[in-house]
Automatic annotation (TrEMBL):
Origin organism lineage: Bacteria, Bacillati, Actinomycetota, Actinomycetes, Propionibacteriales
Entries under PANTHER family matching the protein: ALLANTOATE AMIDOHYDROLASE, ALLANTOATE DEIMINASE-RELATED
Family: Belongs to the peptidase M20 family.
Domain of life: Bacteria
UniProt source species: Kribbella amoyensis
GO terms assigned for molecular function: hydrolase activity, acting on carbon-nitrogen (but not peptide) bonds, in linear amidines; metal ion binding
Protein name: N-carbamoyl-L-amino-acid hydrolase
Gene3D superfamilies in the record: 3.30.70.360, Zn peptidases
Residues where Zn(2+) 1 binds: H80, D91, H190
Cofactor note: Binds 2 Zn(2+) ions per subunit.
Essential cofactor(s): Zn(2+)
Keyword terms: Hydrolase, Metal-binding, Zinc
UniProt-annotated binding residues for Zn(2+) 2: D91, E126, H374
Positions annotated to bind allantoate: R212, N270, R283
Length: 401
């Protein structure tokens, strides 16, 4: 089976797209993410790939025409099929569809890899449902204890264990998986998520250290009409001043700070809130810069809370250290691609988890002309996507020859 990239792309893009926003809500194990996964599994079956799925639902589909498998680790490519809330079409799926296309092209030209080539789809990469980015790859690599993973909750209070059960997946199977040991190398192709890449295709040097931090601002609920402004203990005010401070500190440091998620109690128009929970996503070029950014934001939040008569509590939910991709593999890709540009990224990826786990890992980026990502407006030109497929094909051929 072989299908043009354009047709494959159009087919997957139609799965679960919201007709109003043009975006996707493919949180892990939601109907829309399952539909995308089913589409992927159908494509694997149509290509006679050997599908291996681990306990949490990460999949690698192997192409092994020379029956080279045995104990030999393969060359794995691929990415993820889940999305952020109202995400775009490219973040994740571009890597999966490009991987299928690359195998079609290699097959069509009669290439026989000397090691298996695998197409990976790793679950809940965005952490948009359970709050933990790269959940599937982290569990597979044993970076998060299974008990901690299974106890994570979604916004309705459902635990991961319960959600898996409802999807027909036995939570008993969740834990370190046999897949990483079968990955002799991992190359993730991904849409670039800023405007830094001006050539059609580039190679990643590193991923910025980043983290998710939950701030709980607690004050005193009271009447919006009768409580004098000077009598209030308003946690929304403390939060708002913290958000402004975070923005300023990140600008000063050349870093990034975002409050993109908020929970307000009791969330009524005519009541001063009792509590505001706000999630900070912070990223910087170095570990020191990230730590000092977080330190500054926390200090300013605490000072503001004292003035407002509120309290602030900080819980780090996930912290991801810097990832420097293996220089040898990176340079090999650059060589195969005739000197493609090399660039760092502020976005997180399963590739970072696998790199940390000691697997030689690299990333290819496809140009993003607007730099928009994590939005329905995310976009890449078809010609650049096709250049990405060609680049991935050449890289796989080189690594699996
Ligand atoms: C995932 O794409 C992230 O960087 O948040
Ligand atoms: Mn993303
Ligand atoms: Mn992604
Ligand atoms: Mn990502």
């Amino acid at each position: 089976m072989s299908e043009s990239f354009e047709n494959l792309w159009a087919a997957l893009a139609a799965v679960g797209r919201d007709p109003d926003t043009g975006g996707y809500r493919r949180g892990g194990w939601t109907p829309s993410e399952r539909a995308a996964t089913d589409w992927f599994l159908d494509q694997c079956a149509a290509r006679d790939l050997t599908v291996e799925t681990d306990g949490i639902g990460n999949t690698i589909a192997w192409w092994d025409p020379a029956q080279a498998a045995g104990d030999r680790p393969g060359v794995v490519t691929g990415s993820h099929l889940d999305s952020v809330i109202d995400g775009g079409a490219f973040d994740g799926p571009l890597g999966v569809v490009s991987a299928l296309s690359a195998i079609d092209l290699l097959r069509a030209e009669g290439f026989v890899p000397s090691v298996p080539i695998g197409v990976g789809a790793f679950v809940e990469e965005e952490g948009s449902r359970f709050g933990m980015p790269c959940l599937g790859s982290r569990v597979a690599a044993g970076v998060i204890p299974r008990e901690k993973a299974l106890a994570l909750t979604d916004r309705t209070g459902l635990t991961l264990a319960e959600a898996l059960g409802r999807s027909g997946i036995d939570p008993a199977g969740v834990g370190p998986s046999p897949l990483p040991a079968k990955m002799g190398a991992f190359v993730e192709l991904h849409v670039e998520q800023g405007r830094a890449l001006t050539a059609p295709v580039g190679v990643a040097s590193s991923i910025w250290p980043h983290g998710r931090f939950r701030f709980t601002f607690t004050g005193e609920a009271n009447h919006a009409g009768t409580t004098l402004m000077e009598d209030r203990h308003d946690p929304m005010l403390t939060y708002a001043m913290t958000a402004l401070a975070a923005n300023k500190q990140a600008r000063l440091a050349g870093a990034r700070a975002t409050f993109g998620r908020l929970s307000v109690e009791p969330n009524g128009t005519n009541a001063i809130p009792s509590r505001v929970i706000a999630w900070l996503d912070a990223r910087a070029a170095t570990e020191d810069a990230l730590q000092s950014l977080l330190g500054a934001i926390t200090r300013l939040a605490t000072e503001r809370a004292e003035r407002d008569g509120t309290t602030v509590e900080l819980v780090p939910e996930s912290v991801t250290p810097i990832v420097d991709f293996e220089a040898g593999l990176r340079d090999r890709l650059v060589g195969v691609l005739d000197g493609a540009p090399v660039l760092p990224t502020g976005a997180g990826h399963d590739a970072g988890v696998f790199s940390d786990a000691g697997i030689p890992t690299a990333m290819l980026f496809v140009r993003n002309p607007t730099g928009v990502s994590h939005s329905p407006a995310e976009y890449a030109e078809m010609d650049d996507c096709l250049a990405g497929v060609d680049a991935l094909t050449a890289v796989l051929k080189d690594l699996a020859r």
